[in-house]
Amino acid sequence: MSKIDIDSVGQTREGIFEYDWKMSALYNLCVGAQAEDLSFVYERAQGGMKVFPSFATIVAGSGMIFPKGTDFVRLLHGEQLIRLYAPFKPSGKINTKGVIEHIYDKGKAAVIHIKISGHSPEGEHIFDTKYVYFVGGSGGFGGDPGPKTEPIIPPEGVEPDFSSSYQTSSNQAAFYRLNGDLNPLHIDPNFAKMARQPKPILHGLCTYGIATRAILYELCDRDVSRFKEFSARFTGVVFPGETLITEGWKDNGRYIIQLRKDNTVVLGNSYAIVE
C-alpha cells in the first residue's frame, strides 16, 4: 500500500502559462470546433478570436501539484470543475497557483482535492479549477472521509431542454494530446492493453471539453462571457470515433448535464451555470 503524505495539505505551486492564438485554435479544434466556426479557429475573426472556457484545464496544468507519495499508477481523475470570471484572450500569459486543499480517507483509496487558479499578470482573476483524484491503495490512514457528494440526477421521464450530438474522430485523442497530455494510454495500443483497455482511449478532459462546447453553443449562443461554471464526474470510458450526446435539464438556476454514448453515461453528476 502506497503511503500518501497527508501533511501535504496546504502546499502550493505557482506557474506561468504562455500561449498564442495557434494553441487556442488547436484546443478549440480538439474539442469540436469546426472550420466554419470562424470565431473559434480564425485569428482574424470579426470581433476577435474566442477560446472555449474548458481551456482552463490546459492552463491549470502549469500549476498542478500532487502530495508526496502519490501512486500515479493507481491515480484516477474522478471529478472536474471550472469556474470562469473572465473570458480567455486568444493569446497571452496567465499566472497560476495550485493548492492541495484536502486529502480524504475513503478506506480503499485516498481522495485528493486540488484547486488551481489563474490570474492575468495585472491581477485579474480569470478562472478557478478544481480536480478530484482517487488513489487506489492509499486510503486507510485514519483520516477524515470527507463530505458526501450531492447526487445530481436528471429528472426521470422528462425530456432534456437541449440535446447535442457530436461524433468524435478516430484521430481525436492523437490531436488532443498535442495540448500537453502525453499519457501513452491515449496513443499506444500496447500501453492501452497493459491498462486493460482494448485500444487507446480518449482523454477524459477532451470529453469534458466536448461537453463544454455543447453547453456554450446550446445555452450561451456561443458567447463565452455567459459561461460561468461546469462541474462533472467521469463515469465511463470513451474511445475515439464514438458519438457523444450532451443533454441538459433546467434546475433552479442551473442545468443538470449528462454526457452519454448510446445509453452509457460517461460524464454524470454534472451541472452547468450560465447567464
Written overview of the protein:
With 275 residues, the protein is α+β, with helices and mostly antiparallel strands. It folds into two domains: 6-136, Hotdog Thioesterase (Thiol Ester Dehydrase, Chain A), CATH 3.10.129.10; 162-274, Thiol Ester Dehydrase, Chain A, CATH 3.10.129.10. It has six helices and ten strands, in the order E-H-H-H-E-E-E-E-E-H-H-H-E-E-E-E. Strands 1-3-4-5-2-7-10-9-8-6 form a ten-stranded antiparallel sheet. A hairpin with a 2-residue loop joins strand 9 (254-261) and strand 10. The longest helix is centred in the C-terminal third of the chain and has 16 residues, at 204-219. The radius of gyration is 18 Å and the shape is globular. The relative contact order is 0.17.
Topology (elements, then pairings):
Blueprint: E1 12-19, H1 21-30, H2 38-41, H3 56-59, E2 75-84, E3 92-105, E4 109-119, E5 125-136, E6 162-167, H4 172-176, H5 189-194, H6 204-219, E7 227-234, E8 243-251, E9 254-261, E10 264-274
Antiparallel strand pairs: 1-3, 2-5, 2-7, 3-4, 4-5, 6-8, 7-10, 8-9, 9-10
Mean pLDDT: 96
Radius of gyration: 18 Å
Secondary-structure-derived class: alpha+beta
CATH architecture label of the largest domain = Roll
The helix count comes to 6
Assess the beta-strand content as a share of residues.
35-45%
User: Mind telling me the CATH class of the largest domain?
Assistant: Alpha Beta
N-end to C-end Cα span = 46 Å
And the CATH topology of the largest domain? Thiol Ester Dehydrase, Chain A
Q: Give the overall form.
A: globular
- Major sheet size, sense and barrel closure: 10 strands, antiparallel
- Can you identify the CATH superfamily of the largest domain? Hotdog Thioesterase
Number of strands: 10
Q: What's the SSE pattern?
A: EHHHEEEEEHHHEEEE
Provide the helix percentage: 10-25%
Low-confidence stretches: none
